C-alpha cells in the first residue's frame, strides 16, 4: 500500500483525473476500494494509545485520531510497533484473535490486484526507462551530483546576464540586442574548477545598428574590481558594449570581455573589454552562426526514429540517443538558471533554441549539435509569474495547478522523444486552462504503449522526464509538506527543494547513470545484475566441465535484443494471452472449489525476484508449498536462475493458479545420482500436495559411462513408476534444444507426459526442436525470445524449457475456466484434468502445419475474440 500511494502517477495508473470532479464509474470503483481500506484501518487502530483525541462527525474516527497524533509535533517520534496481536504497548494497529483476518486479506488483495492490473507491463515508466539504455556512462560524469548542478556555471550565467543587459539598456537602437547563450556540457557543469580561467561563457550577440549580424563572444567572471591588464590592452576604462561588439565585427575577431562576480553590487554591472585590434581572440566557429532553430530541425525530421520514417524522406541526419540526451539535459539546466533569477533562458521555446551552421544554413550542422544556443532576456512580469515557485505555506492546503513552464518543457521533451511537433497542443501560460496539460499526460501514456509495441525503448527516458515535468507541482508540494511536518523545520528554502527535484526527478530520468550518485540509490544496479548473470554463466560452465552429466535444463545461451523481430512477436503473444484471460471475465465471478495447483520441478526459486515476490505476496506461492531434495528441505533458493524463470512464467501465464516449488537440482548440468530426486518430487507433488499439473523443464539422457548403466536403469524405473502413479495428473516436459542432432529427451518421450516444443510468437517452428515423432501430437508454443528478468534487467532467451511452463499455464487457465463454468458436465470437467483430455483440448486449440508437422497451441485458435457472446 505504501509503495502504491507514494507513486506520483497514481491517478494515471488508476485512470483517474484529479482535475475532473465529475463522478464516473472508474472514480466510484476506486473510491469504494479506498473506503474499504479505510474501514479496515479504522477498525484496527489501537484505541489504547495515549494522546488520541477524537472528533465528532468524521467518517473514520479512530483513524482520524491516530493521524492527528502523528501529525502533531513529535507525534511520530520514538519507538513504535506498526501492528501487534494485542492493544498494549506502542502499536498503532492491533489485529486481535478471532477477528476475520481472511476478509481483511481478501480486501487488500482486491485493491492490490486492481492497481497491479493497471501497471505498465508490470513496471512503472521509471523502471522501464531505467532498463532502456545500454549506453555506458563516461567516467567524467562520476562526480556529477546535485551540488555541481547549481555550481559555478550557474553563478557565472546570472552575473553575466545582469551585466550584459544593464549595458544594453543604454543602447537606443531598435530592435534591441539579442543575446544567445551556449548551453554547457555536462562535464563543465560538474567541474569543481572555479578558477577565473575556467569560468567562461560562450555567447552570440547581435550588432547595432545591424541586428541581423551575429558576433561571437566570450565572457569571463572575476571577483576583483577589474582584471589587471596593461593600459594598452584595454579598449577603454568605461567601454560601451555596443562599441566593443561593432569593433570586433569590423576587425573579424572574437570578442572577449569580463564581468564582476558580485552579483548584487554595483560592481556587478561593470564590464571590462580587451583591445580587440591588438589582443582580439580567434573566432572559435569562424564562418558559422546561429542559423537553425530546434523547431526547424523538428520540421526536417531530425528527431524521428528509424521505425517512424524512411531515410529517403529525411532532410537531415537524425539525432542519436546520446545527442538527444545531451540536448534534453541542457534544456532542463537552462530552466534551472531561470529559476530565482532576474533573467530568463528560454529553453522551453523551440523557436528560441539555435544550432550553429554555415551562413547559408546548409553547412555542417551535424558537427555542431553539441553546442546549442538559447535566447536570453530580461525577466518580464508574465514570465516571472510562470516561473514563480508557490510559497510553502500556501501548499499545505489544496492542490497547486500545473506549472506552465514545466508543462511547456514537457512538451519539448515529448517532441524530442516522439519526433514530431505537437502544434495542436496549446499550453495556457496563465495556468487557468489545464486542457493542454491533460492532453500531454495522455500523450505520455499513448507514447509508452506505442514504443513498447514497436519494441524500441530508446524514447522511454525522455517520456519519463516529460512525465516528471508534468507532475512537478505534485512532487514539489509533497516535498514541501514533508519538510513542513518535520519537527524544528521552520524555514524552508523553496529553490533548494526545486533544484533537488529537478535533478532527481527529471535529469536522472534522462540519464539513469546520474542517479547512481544519489544518496538513496536503486536496490540493485545494472552492474549488480550483470554480475549476477555472469555468476550464473560461470556456474553453468563449471557444471558443463564435469563428467557424467545426465540432466539438461533446456534454455539456449543465445540472447535476442529487445527490438528484434522474435522479441516483438513474443511480447505480442503475451498480449493476446492476456486478452484471452480477460475475455474469460464473465466466468471468473464463479468461485471454483479450489485453485488449480501446479508443481514445478526445477532448481528452486529466488524469492527476491520481482515476479516471485509478487506471487508470494498474493499467496500464489507459499513457504509451506516449497520443498527441496537438495540439502536443507526448507531451502529452495535458486542458485542457477532457471527454476525462477520457469516459476515466473507459470505465474505470468496463470496468475490465479497456486504454484508448488520442488527443488530437485541446483545447476543446469546435474550428476546421475541427483536424478533420483525427480521420482521423489513427483511422488511428493501427488501424495502430499495433490497437484493438478506437473511442469518439468528438463530432460535426461543415458550417461556416457557404461559403469553407470545399472544405476541409470534403476533411476529410470523409479521415475517411470512415479509417472504412472501420478495419473490422472497432467504432466508436461521439455523436448530438447538440440534440433535434429538429438531425439526427444526423457521424460518427454513418455505417453503419459505431454512433450512441448518451442515456437515463436506467430507459431513458427523455432529451429531448436528435435525431429517430430510419428503418431504423437508434437505440440509447441511460445519458447523463442521469451522476455526474462534478472535483477531488474530484461533479456530475451529461447528454449523448450520456457515453452513448457507456458503450456502448463495455458492448461491451468483451461482447468480454471472449466471449474468456473456451469455449462460443462462433471464428466467433461474430470476428463480435462487428465492427460488425454488435455491433449484433446490442445488439439482443438491447434492445427498441424504441413511443412513443419508441429501443432501450435494458442487459446485464440479455439476461443475467438468475443467468444463469450456465443
UniProtKB/TrEMBL annotation:
DUF7580 domain: residues covered: 149-516
Pfam families: DUF7580, Peptidase_S8
Active site: 602 (charge relay system), 642 (charge relay system), 801 (charge relay system)
Domain Peptidase S8/S53, first and last residues per copy: 596-826
Any one GO biological process: proteolysis
Classification via PANTHER family: CEREVISIN-RELATED, PEPTIDASE S8
Family: Belongs to the peptidase S8 family.
Protein name: Uncharacterized protein
Lineage: Eukaryota, Fungi, Dikarya, Ascomycota, Pezizomycotina
Amino acid at each position: 500500500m505504501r509503495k502504491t500511494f507514494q507513486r506520483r502517477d497514481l491517478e494515471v495508473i488508476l485512470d483517474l483525473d484529479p482535475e475532473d470532479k465529475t463522478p464516473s464509474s472508474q472514480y466510484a470503483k476506486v473510491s469504494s476500494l479506498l473506503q474499504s481500506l479505510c474501514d479496515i484501518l479504522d477498525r484496527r487502530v489501537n484505541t489504547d494509545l495515549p494522546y488520541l483525541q477524537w472528533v465528532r462527525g468524521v467518517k473514520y474516527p479512530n483513524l482520524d485520531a491516530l493521524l492527528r497524533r502523528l501529525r502533531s509535533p513529535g507525534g511520530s517520534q520514538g519507538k513504535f510497533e506498526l501492528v501487534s496481536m494485542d492493544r498494549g504497548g506502542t502499536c498503532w494497529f492491533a489485529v486481535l484473535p478471532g477477528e476475520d483476518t481472511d476478509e481483511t486479506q481478501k480486501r487488500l488483495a482486491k485493491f492490490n490486484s486492481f492497481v497491479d492490473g493497471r501497471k505498465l507491463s508490470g513496471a512503472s515508466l521509471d523502471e522501464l526507462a531505467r532498463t532502456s539504455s545500454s549506453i555506458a556512462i563516461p567516467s567524467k560524469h562520476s562526480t556529477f551530483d546535485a551540488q555541481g548542478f547549481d555550481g559555478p556555471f550557474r553563478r557565472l550565467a546570472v552575473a553575466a546576464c545582469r551585466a550584459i543587459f544593464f549595458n544594453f539598456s543604454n543602447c537606443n537602437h531598435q530592435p534591441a540586442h539579442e543575446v544567445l547563450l551556449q548551453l554547457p556540457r555536462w562535464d563543465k557543469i560538474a567541474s569543481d574548477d572555479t578558477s577565473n580561467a575556467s569560468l567562461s561563457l560562450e555567447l552570440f550577440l547581435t550588432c547595432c545598428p545591424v541586428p541581423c549580424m551575429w558576433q561571437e563572444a566570450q565572457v569571463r567572471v572575476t571577483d576583483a574590481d577589474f582584471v589587471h591588464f596593461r593600459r594598452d590592452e584595454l579598449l577603454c576604462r568605461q567601454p560601451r558594449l555596443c562599441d566593443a561588439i561593432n569593433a570586433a565585427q569590423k576587425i573579424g575577431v572574437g570578442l572577449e570581455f569580463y564581468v564582476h562576480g558580485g552579483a548584487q553590487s554595483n560592481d556587478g554591472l561593470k564590464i571590462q573589454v580587451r583591445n580587440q585590434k591588438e589582443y582580439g581572440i580567434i573566432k572559435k566557429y569562424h564562418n558559422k552562426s546561429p542559423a537553425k532553430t530546434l523547431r526547424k530541425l523538428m520540421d526536417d525530421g531530425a528527431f524521428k526514429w528509424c521505425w517512424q520514417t524512411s531515410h529517403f524522406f529525411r532532410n537531415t541526419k537524425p539525432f542519436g540517443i546520446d545527442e538527444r540526451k545531451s540536448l534534453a539535459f541542457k534544456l532542463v539546466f537552462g530552466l534551472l538558471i531561470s529559476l530565482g533569477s532576474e533573467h530568463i533562458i528560454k529553453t522551453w521555446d523551440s523557436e528560441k533554441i539555435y544550432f550553429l551552421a554555415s551562413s547559408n544554413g546548409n553547412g555542417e550542422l551535424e558537427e555542431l549539435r553539441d553546442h546549442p544556443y538559447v535566447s536570453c532576456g530580461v525577466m518580464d512580469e508574465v514570465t516571472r509569474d510562470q516561473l514563480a515557485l508557490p510559497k510553502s505555506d500556501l501548499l499545505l492546503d489544496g492542490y497547486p495547478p500545473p506549472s506552465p513552464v514545466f508543462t511547456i518543457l514537457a512538451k519539448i521533451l515529448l517532441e524530442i522523444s516522439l519526433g514530431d511537433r505537437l502544434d495542436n497542443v496549446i499550453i495556457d501560460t496563465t495556468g487557468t486552462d489545464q486542457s493542454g496539460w491533460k492532453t500531454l499526460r495522455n500523450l505520455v501514456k499513448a507514447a509508452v504503449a506505442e514504443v513498447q509495441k514497436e519494441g524500441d525503448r530508446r524514447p522511454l527516458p525522455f517520456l519519463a522526464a516529460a512525465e516528471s515535468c508534468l507532475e512537478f507541482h505534485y512532487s514539489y508540494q509533497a516535498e514541501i509538506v514533508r519538510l513542513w511536518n518535520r519537527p524544528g523545520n521552520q524555514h524552508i528554502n523553496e529553490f533548494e527543494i526545486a533544484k533537488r527535484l529537478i535533478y532527481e526527478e527529471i535529469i536522472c530520468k534522462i540519464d539513469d547513470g546520474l542517479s547512481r550518485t544519489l544518496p538513496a540509490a536503486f536496490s540493485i544496479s545494472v552492474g549488480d545484475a550483470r554480475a549476477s548473470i555472469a555468476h550464473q554463466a560461470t556456474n553453468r560452465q563449471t557444471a558443463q566441465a564435469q563428467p557424467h552429466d545426465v540432466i539438461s535444463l533446456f534454455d539456449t545461451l543465445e540472447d535476442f535484443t529487445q527490438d528484434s523481430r522474435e522479441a516483438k512477436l513474443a511480447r505480442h503473444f503475451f498480449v493476446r494471452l492476456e486478452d484471452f484471460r480477460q475475455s474469460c471475465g464473465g466466468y471468473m465471478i464463479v468461485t471454483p472449489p479450489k485453485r488449480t495447483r501446479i508443481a514445478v520441478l526445477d532448481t528452486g526459486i529466488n524469492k527476491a525476484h520481482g515476479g516471485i515476490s509478487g506471487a508470494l505476496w498474493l499467496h500464489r506461492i507459499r513457504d509451506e508449498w516449497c520443498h527441496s531434495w537438495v540439502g536443507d528441505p526448507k531451502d529452495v533458493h535458486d542458485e542457477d536462475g532457471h527454476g525462477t524463470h520457469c516459476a515466473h512464467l507459470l505465474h505470468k501465464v496463470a496468475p490465479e493458479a497456486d504454484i508448488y516449488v520442488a527443488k530437485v537440482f541446483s545447476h543446469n548440468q546435474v550428476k546421475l545420482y541427483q536424478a533420483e530426486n525427480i521420482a521423489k518430487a513427483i511422488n511428493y507433488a501427488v501424495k502430499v500436495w495433490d497437484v493438478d499439473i506437473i511442469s518439468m523443464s528438463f530432460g535426461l539422457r543415458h550417461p556416457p559411462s557404461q559403469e553407470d548403466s545399472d544405476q541409470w536403469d534403476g533411476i529410470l524405473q523409479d521415475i517411470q513408476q512415479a509417472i504412472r502413479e501420478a495419473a490422472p495428473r497432467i504432466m508436461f516436459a521439455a523436448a530438447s534444444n538440440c534440433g535434429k542432432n538429438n531425439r526427444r529427451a526423457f521424460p518427454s518421450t513418455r505417453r503419459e507426459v505431454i512433450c512441448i516444443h518451442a515456437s515463436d510468437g506467430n507459431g513458427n517452428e523455432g529451429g531448436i526442436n528435435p525431429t517430430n515423432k510419428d503418431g504423437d501430437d508434437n505440440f509447441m508454443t511460445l519458447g523463442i525470445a521469451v522476455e526474462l528478468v534478472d535483477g531488474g534487467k530484461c533479456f530475451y532467451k529461447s528454449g523448450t524449457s520456457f515453452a513448457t511452463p507456458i503450456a502448463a499455464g495455458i492448461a491451468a487457465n483451461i482447468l480454471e475456466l472449466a471449474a468456473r463454468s456451469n455449462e460443462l458436465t462433471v464428466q467433461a470437467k474430470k476428463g480435462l484434468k487428465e492427460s488425454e483430455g488435455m491433449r484433446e483440448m490442445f488439439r482443438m486449440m491447434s492445427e498441424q502445419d504441413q511443412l513443419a508437422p508441429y501443432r501450435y497451441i494458442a487459446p485464440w485458435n479455439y476461443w475467438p475474440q468475443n467468444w463469450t457472446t456465443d
